[in-house]
Amino acid sequence: MKYHAAMREALRCELERDPAVFFMGEDVGLPGGIFAQSRGLYEEFGAERVRDTPAGELGFMGAAVGAALTGSRPVVEISFADFFMTCIDQLVNQAAKIRYMSGGQAKVPLTVITFGGAGRNAGPQHSGSYEAWLGSVPGLRVVMPSTPHDVQGLLKAAIRSDDPTIVILNKALLGIADDSEPGVEPIPFGKAVVRREGEHVTIVAWSAMVQTALEAADILAAEDGVSCEVIDLRSIQPLDGELLGASARKTGRVVTVQETVTFAGIGAEVAAEVSRRAFGWLDAPVQIVGPPFTPVPFAPAMEGFVLPGVGSIVGAVREIL
Amino acid sequence: MKEIAPELRLRLYETMLRIRRFEEETGALFAAGELPGFVHLSIGQEAVPTGICAALGHEDTITATHRGHGHIIAKGADLGRMMAELMGKRTGYGAGKGGSMHIFSVDLGVLGANGILGAGQPIAVGAGLSAKLQGSDRVSVTFFGEGASAQGGVHEAMNLAAVWKLPVVFVAEINGYAELTPYQYHVSVPSMVDRAGGYGIPAVSVDGNDVEAVYEAAVEGVARARSGGGPVLIEARTTRWHGHFEGDRQLYRPAEELESLADHDPLTRQADRLVAAGLLGEEGLNVLERRVVEEVAEAVAFGRGSPEAAPEDALLHVYASEGAGAAGAAEVTR
Ligand SMILES: Cc1ncc(C[n+]2csc(CCOP(=O)(O)OP(=O)(O)O)c2C)c(N)n1
User: Fold this and answer.
1) Does the beta carbon of A165 lie under 8 angstroms from any beta carbon of chain B?
2) What percent of chain B is modeled with pLDDT above 90?
3) Is residue B30 over pLDDT 70?
4) Helices B79-86 + B6-31 axis angle, to 10
5) The pTM is what?
6) Band of the pLDDT at B332, cuts 50, 70, 90?
7) A26, A127, A194, B189 - which has most CB atoms within 10 Å?
8) SS3 B12
């Protein structure tokens, strides 16, 4: 199944399962989504439950919060993650804090799907990744599936969860496919997964960087005889510190790789978890691989230059061997 | 419009009195240092929430503002749990986590007072959307001031409610000021009715110090929204008596304005009316007064007698579902 089809499949399953679920966003209804990610759902579930919105994210994100407070289970699409900036108050001050401020009376079963990530020459305002911002907000959950299988599983888990959850999909992964079928069970939050077992170095990645990390691991195996373990975080908030610690204790070396700037980023959290849980087992400092401290540029050559690639991961691993 | 029933006319007065005495007591407790943080009082504005909420049923929802005690009391809140929240006690509506600006009651359909201007309006649109999707005839009411009216969220909410024809009643509670500057610093048109026109939302402006006028406008607006007629806007022009927050000395307001505040008193106006109609005499007023003062005193006693929130209660209520938050954080999630 393809990555965007997995999103559609999870939505279809949840819309069918629970009449309280509805889906809304810009062009997701009649037109079927800018990436064809919701094609067919409008015909199947109708204009009320697969709802085209005006292009006003603050308004419809707030409406989703209000709907979640009154017995509905809204799923909202923010087509590009960069657009969060126009509606961040509703996520951070409202959705995330309402349960807390209400002393546990209220719940906000809201799911937000968004497309983040670079690599498509979409320019500085359509290429950002904001998992570090969102993941640092108490009350929000943030997941980032890297495979079609996980899109299904994590999106279903998000929709069934009573907490506001952001599912960040990656534009660069839209074309990928795996052998998953409809009917994937919900994947619990906070569970990372080992994508490749190894002994010498742990490479931690999430979203589009998982594939890059796997390619780097192939090269390191072939050229250096180095066996890399590749961990896909899947869940940013909560973070699976346990698996990170266990892998680091086994390999003694950790490299993390991310699409976003490294300052106050998730890689730093990985490093903190590893040093807290595996300090005595480490043979080298944790390496954090990420782009330089710039917005994501438009021109293909510049974008390719800032994004971490296979070469930068291989280089970082060789540095600590 | 048919006559308002005598019991309701009395009840309107009593609700305003309850808000007034609760807030006066709140001001006194704040001045005495018994309430942490800061408080915004709505003294002088009681007719607006009272008239609006009297037209609502239990199932209908409201979103309130940072100056929201009146809205929440008018929707039926328990004064004791409110006072306990203001005191940061465990028995408060937010178990001490929200405070004055964040009182919530799921049971009463209070979808939050809000510390963020312009945030309640999109949320109210969502409550209206839920009602529509669920086939319910619930109506969603949202209060906001002229200050908040400059927020994009208010504009987006009005647009969205109108495009989707949702059962939302926008109540523009115009009290002359936003923080320390007057209306014309915030709004370019003389009335919120002009704003509503831009979104195709029918609107009326009423004297917000006349509780019966507010009630009548609310009955009409709520009926329209409830019967599928889409959103409406009610502008209620009223007067803020106290400072923006308690402790604000209001040096920016003309002296003659401050001296004439009581001329607009919505309580006096309604009491005079009830007396003139023969519904209430001196004795009746005294009985009401004693009852409400007693109720407020009980609320204070309840608050004072309630247990403090334990420091580690801070760890509760972050998430509804199982599983810890940040890795390595305390395991407690509910
Ligand atoms: C987003 C946001 N900006 C600014 C403030 C600070 N603030 C609190 S109340 C207020 C004025 C509000 O005026 P209005 O909406 O007319 O309500 P009133 O205080 O008169 O009841 C301001 C600017 C805030 N709480 N939220």
Assistant:
1) no
2) 95
3) yes
4) 20
5) 0.97
6) very low
7) A127
8) helix
Atom of ligand 1 nearest to the CA of B176: 20
What is the tens place of the pLDDT at every residue in A16-43? 999 999 999 999 999 999 989 999 999 9
Interior angle at CA A150, CA A212 and CA A208, nearest 5: 20
From A158, which residue of chain B is nearest by alpha-carbon distance? B321
Q: What is the ipTM of this complex?
A: 0.97
Can you tell me the distance from the alpha carbon of B235 to that of B172, in angstroms, rounded to the nearest whole number? 5
Task: Flag whether residue A239 sits within 8 Å of chain B, measured between CB atoms.
Answer: yes
Query: Which residues is B206 bridged to in the sheet?
Result: B236
Q: What is the pLDDT of residue B321?
A: 84
What 3-state DSSP class applies to A98?
helix
What value does the CA radius of gyration of chain B take, rounded to a whole number of Å? 20
pLDDT in tens, B163-204: 999 999 999 999 999 999 999 999 999 999 999 999 999 999
B contacts of A104 (beta carbons < 8 Å): 95, 316-317, 320, 334
Yes or no: say if B148 and B116 are a contact pair by the CB < 8 Å rule: no
Contacting A residues, span 34-93, partner chain B, CB-CB under 8 Å: 48-49, 53-54, 56, 58-72, 74, 89-90, 93
> Cβ–Cβ of A89/B106 closer than 8 Å?
no
Output the pLDDT for position B210.
98
> What pLDDT sits at residue B334?
30
Return residues 192-231 of A near B (CB < 8 Å).
Answer: none
Superfamily holding B6-332: Thiamin diphosphate (ThDP)-binding fold, Pyr/PP domains (3.40.50.970)
* pLDDT at B1 (0 to 100): 62
Which of A51, A101, A160 is the best substitution to test chain B (most B C-beta atoms within 10 A)? A101
Q: Is A200 a catalytic residue?
A: no
Alpha carbons within 13 A on the beta-carbon side of A34: 10
- Please report the domains of chain A, with CATH numbers, ordered by start residue: 3-173 (3.40.50.970), 193-320 (3.40.50.920)
pLDDT at residue A92, rounded to an integer: 98
In DSSP terms, B105 is beta-bridged to B110
Summarize the confidence of residues B143-156 as an average pLDDT.
98
Sheet holding B140-144, edge to edge: B61-63, B140-144, B168-174, B232-237, B203-207
DSSP B108-176: TTB----SSTTSHHHHHHHHHHHHHHTT----EEEEE-TTGGGSHHHHHHHHHHHHTT--EEEEEEE-S
**Assigned token pair, B66:** 């940072």
In chain A, residues 281-300 whose CB comes closer than 8 Å to chain B: none
Ligand 1 center to residue B117 CA distance, Å? 5
pLDDT tens, B61-90? 999 999 999 999 999 999 999 999 999 999
Strands A165-170 and A201-205 turn out to be unpaired
Q: Positive or negative, the Cα torsion across A28, A78, B63, B205?
A: negative
Q: Read off the tokens for B191.
A: 């009335």
A57 in catalytic set: yes
Low-confidence ranges of chain A (pLDDT < 50): none
